[in-house]
């Protein structure tokens, strides 16, 4: 086959997407197919998913990819994996889950997050290798919560994984992950979990996946390839990749002095920094290695597309496009309506899992278009707040967006 395709499977917070890139047209990737990712919210502050349901959807997308490649006379060389991180999937050796699969949004470990900060310092750069604000979204507090409140879950678990790692396991049979994918638990500079963090989590070392660089690959297991529609000799390689945030930023090819906005279910803003310079930013933003000669200073939200989805559910509207035109005709300020976008707590730069959202200044004259404009403006104000924090050591220029 003379046509070479490269694909990516992105298990995001709201959807699972399969993207394709033709090697002959590197500037024109396209979304081949997608499926919703359902997050269960059984009680306030809880957010769980069903990895088996995500895997079932992934199989549908990958069979579509195999058929599309065959029809185009193309060979899929490799499939990179990315997805939402900072969750925790406790998995048995047969691939079943031994307990609740908490996503990054799950806030039940608030006490454990505070304990982690008290033990290692509010930004704890030492045992993690990076400066991170204290938050319930990181996997270490989630692991400690399981040790305290669901010890049988850990006793029965073979590994703890992120969602993309679980897909890699299903496709290759190996439980691999990149330390950056486990930011908030693994030391991303040393590539391991430090003993003091492991002791604090009360977790045995066998739970960790095999740490590999983000560019590590393995062939798709032959039995899986046949089931998905690939002959064994055409089975693509699988790359463990990295989290969706870092994958998005890497796709922008950031250079020194650049900044970027990643827009999706949540929104993330960041700028590059020289690794040799001290962390000059305030405590509301994080810092981690982006490339050998660049660090990334960034702040993440709990909202963005998620707030729009909330409005759609509230109003029972499948398509916001007509309402967007009406919202655009309203004056700035949505005629006195202000949206506080913390529907699932707050991340950067406040990092308050107990923060709540609000619509302030509501009057009888306000309608759906006002709600939409207020939501867009409220999310934008939060981005401006993050940008100001990231710009503490200099004024960045936004040079690209992704989402």
Overview of the molecule:
This protein is an alpha+beta fold and about 400 residues long. It is about 30% helix and about 25% strand. It contains 12 helices and 19 strands. It has helices at about 50-70, 110-120, 125-130, 140-150, 150-155, 165-170, 195-200, 220-230, 245-250, 305-315, 320-330, 370-390; strands at about 5-10, 15-20, 30-35, 40, 50, 75-85, 90, 160, 175, 210, 215-220, 235-240, 260-265, 265-275, 285-290, 295-300, 340, 360, 395-400. It has a 6-stranded mixed β-sheet. Strands 15-16-14-13-19 form a 5-stranded mixed β-sheet. A two-stranded antiparallel ribbon has the order 4-5. Helix 7 (about 195-200) links the parallel strand 9 (about 175) and strand 10 (about 210). Helix 10 (about 305-315) runs antiparallel to helix 12. It is globular. The two termini are about 30 Å apart. About 45% of the residues are buried. Residues about 395-400 have low confidence and may be disordered.
Give a summary of the structure in a few sentences.
The chain has 403 residues and is an alpha+beta fold. It has helices at residues 51-72, 110-120, 125-128, 139-149, 151-156, 163-172, 195-201, 222-228, 244-251, 305-315, 321-328, 368-390, and strands at residues 3-11, 15-22, 30-36, 39-40, 48-49, 74-83, 89-91, 159-161, 176-177, 210-211, 217-219, 237-239, 258-263, 267-273, 286-291, 294-300, 338-340, 358-360, 397-402. Helix 1 crosses helix 6, helix 2 (110-120) crosses helix 4 and helix 10 (305-315) packs antiparallel against helix 12.
């Amino acid at each position: 086959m003379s046509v070479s395709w490269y694909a990516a499977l992105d298990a995001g917070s709201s959807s699972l997407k399969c993207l394709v890139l033709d090697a002959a047209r590197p500037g024109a990737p396209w979304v081949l197919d997608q499926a919703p990712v359902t997050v269960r919210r059984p009680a306030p502050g809880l957010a769980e998913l069903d990895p088996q349901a995500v895997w079932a959807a992934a199989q549908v997308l990958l069979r579509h990819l195999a058929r599309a490649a065959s029809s185009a006379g193309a060979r899929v060389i490799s499939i990179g994996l990315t997805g939402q991180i900072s969750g925790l999937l406790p998995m048995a050796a047969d691939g079943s889950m031994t307990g609740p699969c908490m996503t990054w949004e799950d806030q039940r470990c608030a006490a454990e997050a505070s304990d982690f900060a008290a033990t290692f310092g509010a930004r704890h750069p030492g045992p993690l290798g990076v400066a991170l604000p204290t938050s319930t979204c990181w996997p270490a507090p989630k692991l400690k919560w399981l040790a305290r409140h669901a010890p049988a879950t850990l006793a029965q678990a073979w590994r703890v994984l992120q969602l993309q790692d679980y897909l890699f396991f299903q496709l290759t049979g190996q439980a691999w992950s990149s330390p950056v994918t486990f930011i908030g638990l693994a030391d991303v500079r040393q590539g391991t979990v430090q003993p003091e963090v492991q002791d604090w989590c009360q977790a045995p070392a066998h739970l960790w996946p095999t740490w590999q660089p983000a560019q590590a690959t393995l062939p798709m297991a032959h039995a899986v390839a046949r089931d998905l529609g690939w002959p064994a000799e055409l089975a693509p390689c699988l790359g463990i990749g990295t989290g969706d945030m870092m994958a998005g930023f890497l796709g922008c090819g950031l250079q020194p002095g650049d900044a970027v906005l990643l827009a999706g279910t949540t929104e993330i803003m960041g700028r590059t920094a020289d690794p040799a310079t001290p962390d000059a930013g305030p405590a509301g933003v994080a810092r981690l290695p982006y490339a050998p000669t660049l660090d990334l200073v960034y702040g993440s939200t709990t909202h963005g597309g998620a707030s729009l989805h909330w409005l759609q559910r509230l109003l029972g509207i499948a398509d916001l496009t007509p309402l967007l035109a009406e919202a655009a005709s309203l004056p700035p300020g949505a005629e006195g309506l202000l949206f506080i976008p913390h529907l699932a707590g707050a991340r950067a730069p406040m990092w308050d899992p107990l923060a709540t959202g609000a619509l302030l200044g509501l009057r009888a004259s306000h309608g759906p278009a006002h709600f939409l404009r207020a939501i867009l403006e409220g999310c934008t104000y939060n981005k401006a707040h993050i940008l100001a924090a990231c710009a503490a050591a200099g004024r960045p220029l936004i040079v690209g967006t992704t989402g």
